[in-house]
Amino acid sequence: xxxxxxxxxxxxxxxxxxxxxxxxxxxxxxxxxxxxxxxxxxxxxxxxxxxxxxxxxxxxxxxxxxxxxxxxxxxxxxxxxxxxxxxxxxxxxxxxxxxxxxxxxxxxxxxxxxxxxxxxxxxxxxxxxxxxxxxxxxxxxxxxxxxxxxxxxxxxxxxxxxxxxxxxxxxxxxxxxxxxxxxxxxxxxxxxxxxxxxxxxxxxxxxxxxxxxxxxxxxxxxxxxxxxxxxxxxxxxxxxxxxxxxxxxxxxxxxxxxxxxxxxxxxxxxxxxxxxxxxxxxxxxxxxxxxxxxxxxxxxxxxxxxxxxxxxxxxxxxxxxxxxxxxxxxxxxxxxxxxxxxxxxxxxxxxxxxxxxxxxxxxxxxxxxxxxxxxxxxxxxxxxxxxxxxxxxxxxxxxxxxxxxxxxxxxxxxxxxxxxxxxxxxxxxxxxxxxxxxxxxxxxxxxxxxxxxxxxxxxxxxxxxxxxxxxxxxxxxxxxxxxxxxxxxxxxxxxxxxxxxxxxxxxxxxxxxxxxxxxxxxxxxxxxxxxxxxxxxxxxxxxxxxxxxxxxxxxxxxxxxxxxxxxxxxxxxxxxxxxxxxxxxxxxxxxxxxxxxxxxxxxxxxxxxxxxxx
Amino acid sequence: xxxxxxxxxxxxxxxxxxxxxxxxxxxxxxxxxxxxxxxxxxxxxxxxxxxxxxxxxxxxxxxxxxxxxxxxxxxxxxxxxxxxxxxxxxxxxxxxxxxxxxxxxxxxxxxxxxxxxxxxxxxxxxxxxxxxxxxxxxxxxxxxxxxxxxxxxxxxxxxxxxxxxxxxxxxxxxxxxxxxxxxxxxxxxxxxxxxxxxxxxxxxxxxxxxxxxxxxxxxxxxxxxxxxxxxxxxxxxxxxxxxxxxxxxxxxxxxxxxxxxxxxxxxxxxxxxxxxxxxxxxxxxxxxxxxxxxxxxxxxxxxxxxxxxxxxxxxxxxxxxxxxxxxxxxxxxxxxxxxxxxxxxxxxxxxxxxxxxxxxxxxxxxxxxxxxxxxxxxxxxxxxxxxxxxxxxxxxxxxxxxxxxxxxxxxxxxxxxxxxxxxxxxxxxxxxxxxxxxxxxxxxxxxxxxxxxxxxxxxxxxxxxxx
Lengths: 614, 467
Fold this sequence. Notes:
The structure holds 2 protein chains of 2 kinds.
Chain A: H1 29-47, H2 51-64, H3 69-81, H4 85-97, H5 103-119, H6 123-136, H7 141-153, H8 157-171, H9 176-188, H10 192-205, H11 210-222, H12 226-239, H13 244-256, H14 260-266, H15 276-288, H16 292-308, H17 317-329, H18 332-336, E1 348-353, H19 360-368, E2 373-377, H20 385-394, H21 416-430, E3 440-443, H22 452-458, E4 463-468, H23 471-479, H24 493-513, E5 517-522, H25 523-528, H26 530-541, H27 551-556, H28 583-589, H29 598-607
Parallel strand pairs in A: 1-3, 1-4, 2-3, 4-5
Helix pairs in contact in A: 1-2, 1-3, 2-3, 3-4, 4-5, 5-6, 5-7, 6-7, 7-8, 7-9, 8-9, 9-10, 9-11, 10-11, 11-12, 11-13, 12-13, 13-14, 13-15, 14-15, 15-16, 17-24, 20-21, 23-24
Chain B: H1 22-34, H2 38-51, H3 56-68, H4 72-85, H5 91-103, H6 106-119, H7 124-136, H8 140-153, H9 158-170, H10 174-181, E1 212-215, H11 220-227, H12 230-236, E2 241-243, H13 249-252, E3 260-262, E4 273-276, H14 280-283, H15 302-315, E5 321-326, H16 336-339, H17 347-350, E6 355-359, E7 378-380, H18 388-395, E8 400-404, H19 407-415, E9 419-423, E10 444-448, H20 456-464
Parallel strand pairs in B: 1-2, 1-4, 2-3, 5-6, 5-8, 6-7, 8-9, 9-10
Helix pairs in contact in B: 1-2, 1-3, 2-3, 3-4, 4-5, 5-6, 5-7, 6-7, 7-8, 7-9, 8-9, 9-10, 11-19, 15-18, 18-19
């Protein structure tokens, strides 16, 4: 009996010729040679846009030889054109995995796979294929361009820059698309002046690039040139009046400019027809106008849309496991046995902790204005050292982090903390954070709370500044944001509250088990008495007496050019106390707003001293 | 017993249910309570009470279970009800007396204790329970008198002897107190503290060199405190062998006169007599007027002092006075509930602007640091401390130690380092009464509770004392 079951992947092939095929039993190169004329015919049909015939022939050929590249390619192109992404991905992966007659062919297959995944926004998934493509075809500008995109969008911005520049060198000319991508990369690195120059070049070569214009406008806004940004966007909107990204950016400029009614006018219409980032902007405008119910409706609709329409879910399980592993390993007893990195003279990191929307970026902005302080933002986080730590400590054996760190207690592991420390500083250097006069580097990586144990080994005396804020204000503020947060906890207030609880419990654990140089700082104090808080921090850090900016300068939080401008500076605002205990007005207007999160947060509200008195 | 047992005889049985005798269930609740299976005991008691809500013994038992679960108010309500229902059962007020003591209701405890004795004038334990209350109320003569009544009924009642010793010693009646204090090795918890030997306990007479075995018994604090008498003993019985735990060797090694230190019984070698360190004060006839070496007799290792000095320079913000802190003791200590505090209770201290707190707390309680978000910078140094040698060296680098009554207090005192000890209303006997200094350690200041169980004003005073 012939097995006629079609493959569940949707390729159109029989299962035993597709995902169920035994690729050790397929025809070899010599046999495929016989089928090649037929494969050429299928390709020709495809090129002549005779898609049905091309598909029928290709499927027949693949039923004889499931590894026939040209036929696979035809079916892949057809599935992709049909927007059948599942089977298209299966076929692209197969094209990349079957033996190829040359490196160039193999590279093209990997590049195709990477590009398809990038087009779906799956940059992390695309990384392996992009890396293969570069290795197979290191003289091909396209492989470097795609690698640049993948690295930039997965947070590896410096490596990304390198590949964009290589792509340009290999092309031997300026390319509008590569330049625009490079400019965005520079923007992410905080090199805004350079980014602006590159955008100008890119847009001169290729002016029909609304994404590029949007990026340029954000750079201009980040440089404090709001008027120029607005002009760019207004002009672009006359050309592309229906471009929603440009419209949203224009609305954000209004928001920055405190034109709240204009924001709402730009983003009008039924809530259900807006996208989550548009809803967040509209809600924020309503918030500033004091329309609490409207603001919450917009925010809540955005969150609901993320869940219902885009299937976003809070995914805590990996983090719960990580918490368990870290709590089990990083105990006072265990840590006592582990060596620490030797003291070093270079710039000293200052680690900032705080749940999203607690005020760590504000604090980093303020500290960056003090001579000798540099802001690393999250550019070179400690978490990137985990792989290296695991490799060094495991020395070839199978082991998991953090348990693997136990082996650094053995003689030949004694140097590992110092090696990791050096790597961390080198990463900051590569990120361009360290200047000749840099004495302190603030590191506000969003996942620092997981790594206080490793930080203790690398920087035993590093100051750790924890920005605290009323937990309900934190929840409210996150409700109004459309940002991707750890474990996807931004999808609902309850998820954010659960994750807040988890993050805080990690910090609590580390503080109980380690001798940390820990200073809690209150957001509420930071915005009401910024200078006093800054002074206390500087004193705590033990910086040599420094001249703090004047009170007025601190209050205005004015834009100040720096060599590297952290991403969060883009929306820099004067200090304000609007966000202090904002939850009260919201709870008064909507008594049920916090009913689900209060039980989760009650303990923290008390413990942090925001209870009865606040 | 089946999970479906039912007691009410009026209700018809459902399938799977069976009738059981009340006495069986009662003894089962007791058993579960004694096996520390408190949740099960409580569940069973609740189900039984649903059927027989007025049963005094079940009420009483469930009260004990609730008390042990920390539900004090409910426990007292249940037990008071059982006494009201069965006013002539001596056991109820006898246990009630202990529960009231635990709840800090000492007047009610006295009344219950007296009632228990009235109902069972031959029950030595009833007297003992009342003696404990009198100690808590600092009615020391009464405590001794009631202990004597218990001992008249049962002359080998070790706990009563020991309670009598503590009352006498606390009151400053040392000579008589030391004699009763000898009963401490008959207490249940003292098992294994002394060597298994047929050799006699030392009587204070001369012995050849190396033939006296000194035993570092009891807690670390006691060993440090009584260790000062080793030179005295070595004058009479030279080069004694000291048996102690490994944790104590780095400290006790400093005391002159010791011949050899061992950490295992097999290594003691031949000896003619043994004596626990806590037995030396009796032989040396110590009283508040003749305590030797109160200025200190231990010295931190200078290298360690320098090491920790450098550490603290890095960890403690500049310009802050360094105050070391210990807030909790070893949870297995018999009076731990009375002495151990929560870090948060030191709020007045932690609110000071001019200090940095260096906690030298060890053990599980260090986790409380994670919940501290107060004003004074707090450096949780406990996790970095490997042994008492570290603790000594750290204390040498701070202005003062503030501590509960625990071993670290003795470490500071024995090093001559300034220390403030916060004490319960009825403290351990060694701190005596009515004075804010101590004959044992010249560098130590005592801060006593003015009323039983009230720490608030003690915390205020100890914080203000830094002015």
